[in-house]
Amino acid sequence: MTSIRRDILIGLVCLALAAALPLAMPGRYVITQSTLFFIWAIVVVQWNLVLGIGGIFSLAQMALFATGAYATAMLGFYWKVPMLAAIPMAGVITVAMGMLIGLACLRLRGPYVALLTLAIAQVMYVLIVNDTDCFTTVGGCMPLFGGVRGIGQFGDIGLRALFPSKWYIAHYYVGLALLAVAVAISIVVIRGPLGLAFRALRDNPGYAMSRGISRFKYQLWIFAVSAFFTGIAGGFYAVHFRVVGPTVFSFSTLLFLIAMIVIGGLGSIWGPLLGAAVLMLADEGMRELSDYRNIGLGLLLAVFVIAWPNGLNGWLQRSLTSRN
Amino acid sequence: MAEAALEIVDASAGYAGRIVLDAIKLSARKGELTAIVGPNGHGKSTLLKAISGLVPVTSGEIRLDGSRIDRLRPDQIVERGVIQVPQGDLLFPAMTVHENLLMGAYANSSGSAERLDFVFTLLPKLKERRNQTAGTLSGGERRMCGIGRGLMAGGEVLMLDEPSLGLAPIVIEQIYEVIFNLRREGRTILLVEENAERIAEHADMIHLLDNGRIAWSGLGAELMARPEIVETYLGV
Amino acid sequence: MDVLIQIVASGLTLGAMYAVATIGLSLVYGSLNMLNMAHGAILTLGGYICYAAIVHAGLHPALALLAAAAVCALVGLLIYFSAALPLLRAENFETNIFIATIGIGSVIENLMLKGFGPYPIPQPLAVGGQVVIGNVHIPLQNVFILGVAIVLMAAVAILMQRTSAGRAIRATSMNREAAQLMGVRVGRIYAQVLALSGALAAVSGIMISSIATLTPVMGGDPMLKAFIVCVVAGLGNVYGAVIAAIALGLLEAATQYVLGVRWSFATLLLLVILVLIWRPYGLFGKQQVVRL
User: Fewer CB within 10 Å, N or C, chain A?
Assistant: First the structure.
């Protein structure tokens, strides 16, 4: 069985199981938490493309997510754009932002990329939080980006009106569909020419470059692709929670997401998804220990990088191949 | 015949699963100039790195005065007195010539003042340039500084990795004059050189390294009398 | 004129603190190629240890400072043995140690949150009084900070330039393999550098908390600024970092005066973004030619 067939099979089985979940466990809490899982899973699957496949140490993924969320909210709030149009538009805006960041990082090496992207995210956060001048006074003073309180009341995708009591299940399926597309895209990228180009650049940069594989071009491409779905996920996050605030920039969210990728397995197709699922479940299971949440996350992150750098995915593959 | 200072007994070594050296057997005798010749990319530098502990020895032994050094860390090997002047000098570019020389005596600082005098007498150019940063030296001066730094360690065996590499012919002559003088003083030298002709008449023993194996060993003078070997392996 | 004195005085104090926070970071990057993301948490820990030593253990302030430096040096050693040493043996050291220290930093920060609570605490190690230059009143605390910073930087400079141990550290950062061939035990150098960096971080943490307050997250901001300094100077360039730190402190004081406190940090960050795009290897850094 070719690896791409195997990937499609795994994907379809997961999709079918996930699609059946609301029938088995229709409780509101489980469904909304799963929807949140879909959103984070989209982000980590796309981040993994930049981090694990491109080998670009960008920490700007949450800034891109925020770009998508804020763009959606602001399009709806200021221009009354319907959400179904605003979310794809936000995706395109995020792509522009992603390519801008990609351009800024082009000439930089590993740790400098991390610092630059961290600085970009921090600038966005500081600019939003410190802006207290009223941009509009409709419904009280509001800064351009909503300031500390964020932006609300920008519309909905209409599912709340359509299914007044079961809207969260509708959102669940929207999230699942978006994730399915995001994973499909990531498989295409990893197994396709883009992934091949990056593998070539990593394994034999001299040969790859002499065959006309330009790092610059592919680096921009991977930033653009991963930004699109991250932006869409941000937009969906905005309509799902009906508010966007500067908390999306918080370091603990960044830590949570990077831990998902590392624990799952950096650079693999299913690893980040697996990591996201494991960490969301662990987070649920240890709700009463929430004081220790970030201590645990930090420890897990460090231990995995040091002892199991290939993550759960690497461990699974090893144990599967040793059995055969 | 002098006794062996450094003995390599069936040593194999390599990086990440790839064997570069295959059961090498040779020794460097006390007070002699032992040369390792052979084409590029056939393991000469790897051999010196393996002796210095920078590349792991996977089987066989390396002995200094009869005791094994192949399981030691690089710093312990330097402490025992096996000193390497690496290929391409690897000077500390932002340090002055004087500081580079002091680094040479890092592991063995007793008597370093006398050795500094000795190095400055042997290589007077370095004395002139002592407060200049190493990054600003010319190619020949850099090579002198590398050799001087190696001499500062005052070790028992001095290993030189292609000291002629990339230099103009007239500078190569100067460098080799220094090296042959050291031999006349009775130093134990293990020299890696691509061009056998340059050193054949001065070397006590020559080992020809081909594809990670010793293809031929003999007295220095013998090699030049064997044109078929020179032609096959050294392509002159 | 008074404004200028005011800006220079507070700028120098800020710059001195940033310099002390940066030296350790830069030394560690220079010798190990390790970007220590736990630096901010170690710096905060130094502030808390000093506080606890004075308030709870009743130690003399000078001893408390030493205790904080010692504890943070120990944390640096711990990071070496638990994270850097095993990761150095594997591939992708630079990326992996970056991620690992993010995790370690989070652990330290949240342990402090558990131990000392989220509320700001004043740093007891402080000097009262002020000096008057022209019409400007400068707190004695600022002068004290400047003095300590200068002494520390001079000590580090002497250590690096005049001692055999310092030369070995510099040699290792210039060329690891050549240093090994000189008989330098690089593992020991790494451990020393991380310990030294921890001790320096502790002192800068005490300084910073003495003019602001102690909170578990206070390290993030100075760490980002220390990174900015490192980046502007070129990672691993210690002397460039000191100059850049002082320039940054002066600039921050100036932008605070001109644009207000709200925008000064954003301005600095924008500046570093521009520097990175314009000179990817820092203002004083040299481009490393990658050979294939």
Answer: C
Distances in Å between the alpha carbon of A41 and those of A140, A234, A272?
A: 36, 12, 7
**Quick check: C84 and C194 in contact, CB under 8 A?**
yes
Mean per-residue pLDDT, C174-191: 94
Query: Are C202 and C42 in contact, with CB atoms under 8 Å apart?
Result: yes
- Write the ipTM: 0.91
Task: Return the SS3 of C241.
Answer: helix
Q: What is the token pair recorded at A179?
A: 């994730």
Closest CA of chain B from C91, distance in Å: 12
The predicted-structure confidence for B102-129, as pLDDT tens digits, reads as follows: 999 999 888 899 999 999 999 999 999 9
pLDDT band at B1 (very low <50, low <70, confident <90, very high): low
pLDDT score of A139 more than 70 = no
The CA dihedral of A76, A79, A80, A83, to the nearest 10 degrees, is -40
Q: Do B99 and C167 touch (CB under 8 A)?
A: yes
CA distances from B57 to A42, B24, B52, B54 (A): 48, 11, 10, 9
Instruction: Please give the interface size between A and C, counted as residue pairs whose CB atoms are below 8 Å apart.
Output: 123
* C-alpha of C199 from chain center: 10
Contact A45, A271 (CB under 8 A): no
For the beta carbon of residue A18, count every other beta carbon within 10 angstroms: 18
Structure tokens at A80: 């009354």
Query: Torsion over CA of A76, A81, A87 and A92, rounded to 10 degrees?
Result: -110
Angle at C127 between CA C122 and CA C132, to 5 degrees: 120
- With CB atoms and an 8 Å threshold, state whether C170 touches B107: no
Across the interface, whether the CB atoms of B74 and C180 are under 8 A apart is answered yes
Tokens of A98: 């992603």
**Alpha helix segments (H runs only) across A131-270:** 159-162, 167-191, 193-203, 205-210, 215-241, 251-264
Distance CA B173, CA C184 (A): 32
Q: Which of A113, A115, A215, A286 to mutate to test the interface with C (most CBs of C within 10 A)?
A: A115
Confidence of residue C288 (pLDDT cuts 50, 70, 90): very low
Average pLDDT, chain A: 86
Q: Is the model's pTM score more than 0.90?
A: no
Cβ contact B106–C168 (<8 Å)? yes
* CA-based nearest residue in chain B for residue C171: B92
C18 touches chain A (CB under 8 A): no
Q: Is B106 on the interface with C (CB under 8 A)?
A: yes
**Integer Cα distance of A215 and A194 in angstroms:** 11
Across the range B158-179, mean pLDDT stands at 92
User: Given an 8 Å threshold on Cβ–Cβ distance, is C182 in contact with B109?
Assistant: no
Are C171 and B92 in contact (CB < 8 Å)?
Answer: yes
CB contact under 8 A, C231 and A115: yes
- Which among B86, B90, B107 has the least Cβ separation from residue C183? B107
Answer for the pair C280, C287: CB distance below 8 angstroms, yes or no: yes
Q: Does C288 touch chain B (CB under 8 A)?
A: no
- Which residue is associated with the tokens 């605030």? A245
- Phi and psi at A320, nearest 5°, equal -70, -45
User: Which DSSP string corresponds to B155-222?
Assistant: -SEEEEE-TTTT--HHHHHHHHHHHHHHHHTT-EEEEEES-HHHHTTT-SEEEEEETTEEEEEEEHHH
Interface mutation vs chain C, best among A117, A257, A306, most C CBs within 10 Å: A306
